[in-house]
Structure formats: structure tokens, C-alpha cells
Amino acid sequence: MVYFETSFPVRYYETDQMGIVHHSNYIRYFECARNELMKHIGYPIERCEAEGVTIPIVKVACRYKHPAKMGDVVTVSASIEKSPLAKLSVQQVVRNQDGQVCVEGEVMLGFLGKSGRPVACPEPLVKAIEQHLNDR
Questions:
Q1: What CATH class is the domain 2-132?
Q2: Exactly one of 16, 72, 98, 135 is catalytic; which is it?
Q3: Is there a catalytic annotation at residue 98?
Q4: Dihedral over Cα of 125, 6, 32, 36: its sign
Q5: Predicted confidence (pLDDT) at residue 40 exceeds the cutoff of 90
Q6: 10: burial class by Cβ within 10 Å (0-12, 13-18, 19+)?
Q7: In 10 A of CB 119, how many CB atoms?
Q8: Rounded distance, CA 62 to CA 93, Å?
């Protein structure tokens, strides 16, 4: 499994009037961990785009379990369990400082070439993922 996690405090602007993280911000949290995972394995998203491939989200699934709140420090993880072909599945979890799971989900990513048409996962990304599949 390729695994990465990052931690940061919940910011005031991410919460509603009750001091609870607004549900839409968990998608942003997922993105932070995914982007850092890509850097961690040596193939940042900027490189992929410079090589002519964009990585759009094609599906997001979230299960909300426990609210994160103002003042919490959340840890967001991103993991990849298998080498991608046409799509890349990333499992994601947000935990609070007590280890409680706030949200868990999956983000499915596709790959588009310069023409805007679907392409296979770039070979350098496949290799980077395969080199780290035994992490953690």
C-alpha cells in the first residue's frame, strides 16, 4: 500500500456557526493529503500536468462519522492499494487528535491527455506507485 498522512488544525473559516467543519471541506482535506502523497512518491501533480496529463476527479464517496470541530487538529491520510490502469482509486480518512474517524472515503481519479480525451495512467506515475506499494 502507498500511504501518506498530514496533520493541520481546523481553521475558523472551515466551520459553520456551530464550530463544526462544513461537510464540503473534507473534500479539500482529502485533496491536501493526495497532493502530498504524490509529492512523497516523487511524482507531483505539477509534473504530470507538465507532461500533458491532467488528473480530474471522476467520483468522490464520503462517509461522515464524527464531526471535526474548531480547535481540533485533524490528520488526513491517503492510501493507494493497487497500481492504476485507466483510473486511480485513493482511500482517504480524516481523524481528529483523539484518533476518532471523522470521515472516510474514496476518491476516483481519471487521466486526460492534451486533447481532453481519456488516457491510461502515465507510466512514470505507475512506476512511482509500484515502487511504494509496500510502504507502511
A1: alpha beta
A2: 16
A3: no
A4: negative
A5: yes
A6: buried
A7: 15
A8: 9
